[in-house]
Structures are given as C-alpha cells and as structure tokens.
Amino acid sequence: MTTGNEPPVPAEPEPPGPDTPDTLRQRDGRGRFTRSIKTARRDAAAADYLAEHPGTTYRQLARLFGYYDHKDARIGIEQAKADVARPAVTKLIADESQELDALYTEAVAILQRNHVTVSHGRIVMWRNPDTGQEEPLQDDGPRLQAIQLALRVRESYRKLHGLDQPAQVAVSGAVRYEVVGVDPADLA
What we know:
Elements lengths: L20 H4 L1 E2 L5 E2 L2 H16 L5 H8 L4 H43 L5 E2 L2 E2 L1 E3 L6 E3 L4 H21 L22 H4 L1
Antiparallel strand pairs: 1-2, 3-4, 5-6
C-alpha cells in the first residue's frame, strides 16, 4: 500500500546515442577530454563543411556536428587544421634531424683527426723533450672549432625536438621610495 508520501523514483536515464557529444568525447584518468577517432573524423568533416560553406558560423557547426557549443566547434576546426599539417611538420622535423645528424658526424670526424700547424706552406716542427725527436706541432684550432660546431648542432637538435626546459624567470625584491627634502617625522 502506498500513502503517496514516498519520494518519486527517478527514471533510468537513457544511454546516450552513438553520436552524442558524451559518447564522442572520452576522458582520461584526470577527467580531461581526449581525442578519439570519432572526434577526429567529426572535426575533419566539420572543417570540410566549413570549407565548402564559407559563411557557416561556429554555432551552426556545433548544431550540425554535435559539438557542445560554438567554442568546441572552433577548437575542433583548429585541431582538424593541425591534423592536416602534422604529417608535413613531422617529415620536416625528420629531414632536419637527418641533416643535423650528418653535421654532427662530420664535426666529430674533424675532432678526431690530427691537425698540424702550417706556417708559410711548411709544417711547423718542435723537439719533444721526452724523446729528443722532432715532431709536427699539433694545431688545436680546428679541434676547438669542431667542438663549437658540435655544441651548436646539439643545441639546434634540442630546440628542434623541444628537449630544453622552458626558461623561468624568478623576480623577487621590494621597491623602496625615498622622498628627498621631507622629514619623515613631519609626515606622521
């Protein structure tokens, strides 16, 4: 028997459909949304639609393609643009990495060679006090230049792949104002 005072039992919510925004957007372990194949395809389709219909607003795209709002539609279009450019950028980075590797290999080869000092077209000789023999005087200039080149190549490689830590600037201190010609006791 019911008295009519029982709290209403909520109806079971219907599971979301196959293309609703809740099923398209998956969350990671921290609750942030992650892109899936479905969202990437939706973003690409929205970008294609926008290219074919240039006067379309982001609000219209949100309604047509199931985005939550116009901001999500804009973000989806931006991600679709990035997806198109990503293979070209990846290839460019790979090509640049190969060139930097070749430069680094050449710098190391120069570093490992023996370089003699030449003056007026002749090899400069010196007498080794340990052996008493005359030997060519070694020139460290090319080696030092090869070290500098190798360091610059490695720095370029780190920048290309984003391996450097971002620079952080810490500012601390205080500002002190001093008014000249006024007695602090007069101010109180």
